[in-house]
Amino acid sequence: MTVYVDAPIWHLAGRRWCHLMADDTDELHRFAFGLGLKLSSYQGPPKTSAPHYDITAFERDLAVRRGARECSREEIVAVFRRVRVTGVGERRGRVQRKAA
User: Fold this and answer.
1) Residues in domain DUF4031 (predicted)?
2) What is the rounded CA–CA span in Å between residue 37 and residue 72?
3) What's the distance, Cα to Cα, between the start and end of the chain in Å?
4) What single DSSP character describes residue 46?
5) Does residue 16 contact residue 56 with C-beta atoms inside 8 Å?
6) What is the DSSP-derived secondary structure letter of residue 50?
7) Model confidence at 67, in pLDDT bands (50, 70, 90)?
8) Which residues, other chains included, contact 8 with Cβ-Cβ below 8 Å and sequence gap of 6+?
9) In terms of DSSP bridges, do strands 69-70 and 3-5 run parallel, antiparallel, or are they unpaired?
10) Which value, to the nearest 10 degrees, does the dihedral of the CA atoms of residues 71, 24, 78, 93 take?
């Protein structure tokens, strides 16, 4: 499994933010917990259609040191599309991967 991070280009509350995503939601959570992130910072259905964590530039640096793959904007959008939940998954609260 692969964990991905994009560039920290989003500015909020005096910090730069980016996205942490993975091919598998369980892997995403394991990696995030290893970074010290709390489940409360997880964003997934029904809040958003693609499971991810918003992380700071500092957390991103740690994620990269721990093996996360740095992605361009185009690459992270492709990951978003791959892991996006279907309408059925949103209604049931389950994450379903879209067929490639």
Assistant:
1) 3-82
2) 23
3) 16
4) T
5) yes
6) S
7) very high
8) 16, 17, 18, 56, 57, 60
9) parallel
10) -130
Look at the block and give the residue holding tokens 């991103």: 60
Split at pLDDT 50, 70, 90, the class of 87 is low
Q: Where are the domains of the chain?
A: 3-83
Question: Cβ–Cβ contacts within 10 Å for residue 85, how many?
Answer: 23
> Against a cut of 0.70, is the pTM above it?
yes
| Sign of the dihedral defined by the CA atoms of residues 33, 39, 42, 44, in that order | positive
Sole residue written with tokens 């560039």: 7
HSE toward the beta carbon, residue 80, CA cutoff 13 A: 15
Alpha-carbon distance of 42 to 26, in angstroms, equals 12
CA–CA distance, 5 with 60 (Å, rounded to integer) = 7
Tally of CB atoms within 10 A around 16: 15
Q: How far apart are CA 8 and CA 6, in angstroms?
A: 7
- The gap from C-alpha 21 to its chain's centroid, in whole angstroms, comes to 3
